[in-house]
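Recap from last week: sequence in, structure out.
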Amino acid sequence: MTPPLPPTAGEVTVDGREVTLPFAGAELSIRRASSTFLLLQTPGAHILWGLETPTTYVTLQPTFAGKVSPVPDGGARRDASQGSRGASS
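Predicted structure tokens:
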């Protein structure tokens, strides 16, 4: 049996209020990318947010190069050279 999909509203808040997906605001859009990920888009960044697992994939525009802090101590960081799929958490 296939588990039910997570809800499309009631679990997502923007500025303290519940929103219905897909959501589009001036600087933020949120939509379901798949049954397990939400896609959050802002100018300069795309974020895939895991619904079933604590997984996040972040893609930044080149203008952020050299401006992003490294993963804090205790955080897991993997890249393709270590045999994963390029995930950082």
